[in-house]
Automatic annotation (TrEMBL):
PROSITE patterns named in the record: MFS (PS50850)
UniProt xrefs under Pfam families: MFS_1
Positions of the Major facilitator superfamily (MFS) profile domain: 15-395
Keywords carried by this UniProt record: Cell membrane, Membrane, Transmembrane, Transmembrane helix, Transport
GO molecular function: transmembrane transporter activity
UniProt-recorded name of the protein: MFS family permease
Listed Low complexity bias regions: 450-459
CDD domains: MFS_MdtH_MDR_like
Source organism: Actinoplanes digitatis
Record's GO cellular component terms: plasma membrane
């Protein structure tokens, strides 16, 4: 067991564990997003369409927040962007809980979405900055595990809190967001890569968002992600409304949706080893197909047991999708535009979160739940096909970026220090004496024959890898 834990969680940088801890604490109190649809329809007596518009406003705010956060992450820095978004979200969470009436709540949701989702690009960019390429799938799985451990606990606890006072949902959520902001303030250091000084001559603008939107390979991937987000986000909008319509209580919804988090907590750390060596595009295609089928089961659900079966199925797909999805985004993002790329990727989630409740609420109210859930299944099939078709171009792009990436400078210097021989003193003859002619000797060959100043290739590359591990040893996380 100890060996498995070391393989799953050992050797990651210290700053990653601060990010991980903040994620866990924040998600333990993520009450509002889980129960907002029920709060709006049950406590505020909004219609399904009105509730969809409020949830959509949160998504629109999130879209603005992720784009703004992505630009600020690259220009201003990871740490100040995270702190501004986290402290702002904690304040606005309380404001939304105290808001009354449709327009106040709509505006509160819009502003909260901007700040709550604005932290995403900075968080993701910082994680990419501190975690080496070879450990990113493992790191994303661990972070995803923390997200869902908190989510599973929050779903149950929020269901109990909602029975006493809905305001508790907002206050607890704001409190955990504030604690996360304090952790970021005290323990997190800035990780934005240093930019090279501008060259002499007329100043020209660097690459920006236009560069990303012209990146067809990346934008195709973002578009596919957007459509599957439309399906996934129905579990926070259409699904709780459907369960309420079937006479199931908010507490029942909490226990059913907690299955998602519990499954991920129990099994997510095994996923990286399970998918290791498999074609990434096929893994993503299979995962989206399973997600579509899982939501399609809701067309036949009417009891808590069948809703639970649906959750089990689409959770398996989500577990397969998340680590491959996150690692691929990191590989497709050039270092100097990492925040913007993460922001545009987060935009697919924010835009999906904005449209999912609006479209889902409209279809649910006017065409019925069966049409909505079978439509989700159809989208899953189409996205799976898109992942297969677009996969080769993505892998070529990721390979090209890896080949252009600079070699770790410390590792190169360490190897050079080990392999370059010390200088040899040369004794000159006295002035005026003849310099004896020496026979030219053929340079010796074979092991130990002389200095090599280049980094070893092939099997000898292990020397460089060992040096790289030594240089990172001081930044490792806890020795699990």
């Amino acid at each position: 067991m100890r060996g498995w834990l070391q393989q799953a969680a050992g050797g990651l940088p210290r700053q990653f564990w601060f990010l991980w801890t903040g994620t866990l604490i924040n998600r333990l109190g993520s009450f509002v997003v889980v129960y907002l649809a029920i709060y709006l329809t049950g406590q505020q007596h909004f219609s399904q369409s009105q509730a969809g518009l409020v949830l959509g406003a949160y998504g629109v705010g999130g879209a603005v927040g992720t784009m703004t956060g992505g630009v600020l992450t690259d220009r201003w820095g990871r740490r100040p962007t995270m702190l501004t978004a986290q402290f702002g979200a904690a304040t606005l969470m309380v404001g939304l809980g105290l808001a009354q009436g449709f327009w106040q709540i709509l505006l509160g949701a819009l502003l909260l979405g901007a700040f709550a989702e604005g932290v995403r690009p900075a968080f993701q960019a910082m994680m990419v900055d501190v975690v080496p390429d070879s450990d990113r799938v493992r790191a994303y799985s661990l972070n995803y595990w923390a997200v869902n451990l908190g989510f599973a606990s929050a779903a149950v606890l929020a269901g109990l809190a909602a029975q006493f006072d809905y305001l508790l949902l907002f206050l607890v959520d704001a409190g955990t967001t504030l604690v996360t902001a304090i952790i970021s303030l005290i323990f997190l250091a800035e990780t934005r890569p240093h930019r090279a000084p501008p060259a002499a001559g007329p100043r020209r603008g660097g690459p920006g968002l236009g560069t990303i939107f012209r990146d067809r390979t990346f934008m195709t991937f973002v578009a596919l992600n957007f459509f599957i987000v439309l399906v996934i986000m129905q579990h926070l909008s259409a699904m709780p409304i459907a369960m309420s319509a079937d006479g199931l209580s908010p507490a029942t919804f909490g226990w059913v949706i907690a299955i998602n988090g519990l499954m991920i907590v129990a099994g997510q750390l095994f996923v990286p080893k399970l998918i290791d060596g498999h074609d990434r595009s096929r893994v993503l295609a299979l995962s989206t197909l399973i997600i579509g089928v899982g939501f399609g089961v809701n067309a036949f659900a009417g009891t808590a047991a069948l809703y639970a079966v649906s959750v089990v199925i689409w959770t398996v797909g989500e577990m397969l999708q998340s680590p491959s999805n996150s690692a691929l985004i990191a590989e497709l993002s050039p270092a100097q535009l990492r925040g913007r790329y993460q922001g545009v990727n987060s935009l697919s989630w924010s835009a999906g979160a904005a449209l999912a409740p609006i479209v889902g609420g409209f279809v649910q109210q006017h065409l019925g739940g069966t049409v909505l859930w079978l439509g989700c299944a159809a989208i899953g099939v189409l996205v799976a096909a898109g992942q297969i078709v677009s996969g080769p171009a993505r892998e070529r792009r990721a390979k090209a970026l890896r080949e252009r990436a600079p070699v770790h400078p410390v590792a190169v210097e360490t190897v050079a220090a080990e392999t370059v021989a010390p200088p040899v003193a040369v004794v000159l003859p006295p002035a005026g004496s003849a310099v004896p002619r020496q026979r030219r000797r053929r340079p010796p060959s074979g092991p130990g024959s002389g200095p090599r100043t280049s980094v070893p290739r092939g099997p000898n590359r292990a020397i460089s890898d060992r040096a790289d591990r030594v240089t990172r040893k001081g930044d490792n996380g806890p020795d699990v």
